[in-house]
Design goal:
Blueprint lengths: L1 H11 L11 H14 L4 H20 L2 H8 L4 H15 L1 H13 L4 H21 L22 H21 L6 H16 L11 E12 L13 H13 L5 E3 L9 H7 L3 H9 L5 E10 L3 E10 L5 E4 L15 H4 L19 E3 L2 E7 L6 H4 L12 E6 L9 H16 L3 E5 L5 E3 L5 E4 L6 E11 L3 H9 L2 H20 L2
Parallel strand pairs: 1-2, 2-3, 7-8, 8-9
Antiparallel strand pairs: 1-12, 3-4, 4-5, 6-7, 9-10, 10-11
Helix pairs in contact: 1-2, 1-3, 2-8, 3-5, 3-6, 4-5, 6-7, 7-8, 7-17, 8-15
Length: 497
């Protein structure tokens, strides 16, 4: 019964990553998990934590099945098994954390709450970093619309997840407390969790001017994106949308031009020269997604920037998607079972320069690169050259009409909160949107439609505390915090023996 409940709780909380008004749901489910772990042996606690994590990830990323089966050609049972295996493997971290909590809990509520929060933080950091990292749906993302989400410019998404875990552990102690203690602790938690809504959000940055933008949404089905008979129409629409864009800055989705340069020249001679001529004069600029390179020297998932004020700009994706953009060691047999084009890219640099155009410094990032806030923060080390605008160029068409679109939108909103920069999202199937520096969606196209989104965006200058510390030292302060709390807890336990 407890095992089924743990898996169900993990699955249930994923609603909050789509419907952010339910930000309290992960708090409640984590509190029940802590209650289940109390009194369990380390082995049983590990199983409960593993089931909670597996339910969490299966319910949250089941759409990977679509990319592997519908578009990759993997048999349905193998695609389903692969999703389950991924979720099960990534849940080992929370299983270890749960076992350690059951083993080391002292029975002192406030100490154990800190211990659980530190172990939870270590588990989330491990999932987000080890083996290239997969931080999709880290718990703090559920709080993008929560009052405490305003702490993001200081502590980032992992810090929010740590507060969530601590609060959950404190909630789990309420049934064991006296009536008076319940009122005090419950009231204190309510003030902490809801109180920030009563004060204005902090402003760590200042206006750097406004910019008109046009964001393109191509809505090309993934099974037609590389089809030879569909390419001429796809390329023609893309060219017309770029040339007729009303905003001074036009941003395309990832690989809107889905051909390598020499392939494009064969299929559509003069395509790039026409775009370069158009954007090479006047007060206009473009960021265009296209793979670059060739099969002999290697290729990159890239963005090309065109403007009259500078030489052509190039951004190469740094954080590649396992199996989709690079093949992990020992897994080539797996990728050979799927029909995914361009499956092994070269990496770009992590701290890439911005595209300077139209009075703004625009920092592209491609697809799920915006999950890694600590990597985006590397571009903010120097305030004088830090981006004023972020631009995410994605193709979520691999995952069909699913919750992946809403999830990714909310992940981008968290990046905007952490760094207090607007985020432009130009995508193939959605969500194409303009997000302001407070993480609020200002304008958005309906998903799964073809069109252009015209809007105004306000660039921002100045650095948040998160941008400063994460830009310089990455996630190390959080690692030190997690390990430090655990060591302090263990030292105190030894002294009381």
């Amino acid at each position: 019964m407890k095992r089924a409940l743990a898996a169900a709780l993990g699955a249930l909380q994923t609603l909050a990553f789509v419907h952010t008004a339910a930000w309290w749901l992960p708090l409640a489910t984590a509190a029940v998990l802590v209650h289940l772990l109390r009194g369990a042996t380390p082995g049983r606690a590990a199983v409960l934590g593993w089931l909670y994590g597996t339910g969490w990830l299966v319910a949250g990323v089941w759409w990977l099945f679509i990319s592997m089966h519908r578009y990759g050609g993997l048999p349905a049972f193998l695609a389903a098994a692969a999703v389950l295996a991924l979720a099960a493997a990534l849940s080992i971290y929370i299983a270890v954390a749960s076992a350690a909590y059951a083993r080391w809990a002292s029975g002192v509520a406030w100490k154990d709450a800190l211990l659980f929060a530190a172990l939870w933080l270590a588990a989330e950091l491990a999932r987000g970093v080890f083996f290239t990292g997969f931080p999709w749906l880290a718990s703090g993302y559920a709080w993008v619309d929560a009052p405490l989400g305003r702490l993001a410019p200081w502590i980032g998404v992992y810090g929010l997840g740590t507060v969530l875990a601590w609060a959950a552990a404190m909630l789990a102690t309420l049934p064991r407390r006296s009536w008076r203690s319940r009122v005090l602790v419950g009231g204190g938690l309510a003030v902490l969790l809801l109180g920030p809504a009563l004060v204005p959000p902090p402003e760590h940055t200042r206006s750097a001017g406004t910019l008109g933008v046009t964001l393109l949404q191509t809505n090309v089905p993934q099974d037609e994106k590389f089809a030879a008979e569909k390419l001429p129409a796809t390329l023609e629409w893309a060219a017309q949308a770029l040339l007729q864009a009303r905003g001074p800055l036009v941003v395309s989705p990832e690989t809107m031009v889905p051909l390598l340069p020499e392939q494009l020249e064969r299929v559509a001679p003069g395509y790039w020269p026409a775009l370069q001529e158009h954007f090479g004069s006047g007060a206009r600029a473009a960021l265009i997604g296209q793979p670059l390179g060739d099969y002999e020297r290697g290729y990159t998932n890239s963005v090309v920037g065109l403007s009259a004020s500078a030489a052509p700009y190039r951004y190469d994706k740094h954080h590649l998607v396992p199996f989709g953009e690079f093949i992990p060691t020992g897994f080539r047999w797996f990728t050979r079972m799927m029909n995914i084009p361009l499956g092994d890219f070269d990496r770009g640099v992590v701290a890439a320069p911005s595209f300077s155009a139209l009075g703004q410094r625009i920092a592209p990032n491609i697809c799920y690169e915006d999950l890694f806030g600590e990597e985006l923060a590397r571009r903010f080390v120097d305030d004088a050259t830090a981006p004023t605008v972020l631009a995410n160029m994605s193709n979520i068409g691999w995952f069909g009409d699913t919750i992946a679109v809403s999830q990714h939108l909310n992940l981008s909103r968290m990046r905007a909160l952490e760094l207090q920069r607007p985020m432009l999202r130009a995508t193939n199937t959605g969500a194409t949107a303009v997000i302001d520096h407070r993480g609020q969606v200002l304008a958005m196209l309906a998903p799964y439609t073809r069109g252009s989104l015209d809007a105004q965006v306000e660039g921002r200058a100045g650095l948040t505390p998160y941008a400063r510390w994460a830009g310089h030292v990455g996630l190390w302060p959080l690692w030190v915090l997690a390990v430090g709390i655990v060591l302090a807890h263990r030292t105190a336990a030894r002294r009381t023996r």
